[in-house]
Amino acid sequence: MQEIDQKKMVLDFIKSQKLATLATVGADGNPEAATVAISETNDLSLVFGCYATARKYQNLISNQNVAVVFSQDKISVQYEGKVKEVVGEETKRLQDIHIAKHADSAKHSSHPAEKYFIVTPVWIRYMNHSTKPDLEFEIKF
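^ that's the sequence the OP posted. Answer follows.
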């Protein structure tokens, strides 16, 4: 299977998902996992928001490495990437992308503690165990 087809398959699956599990690591080395509303861009970057008062925010600021898992039925995507807080003009563009998928997130967008992040992929593993044979592949960036 060509890499372009693999990327489209991953993107289509992520587009179908509203929530994912985001794993971060704190400055003290302790892991944290949280379910978050997550959005995507066409280049397979991920977008999400969180309050600056959250433990997750402090983890994201201290360590840019994250893992994200999307899963439904017998399909899952394991995603590892680098996260960065979005500031300035880029914030509005990513807010719009996120709110288009999660209209209920609009109520948080004007809160002064709400911050937005973008995750750039480093490694993705796609697994579909509903096919015969199972379909599994990795994409490295």
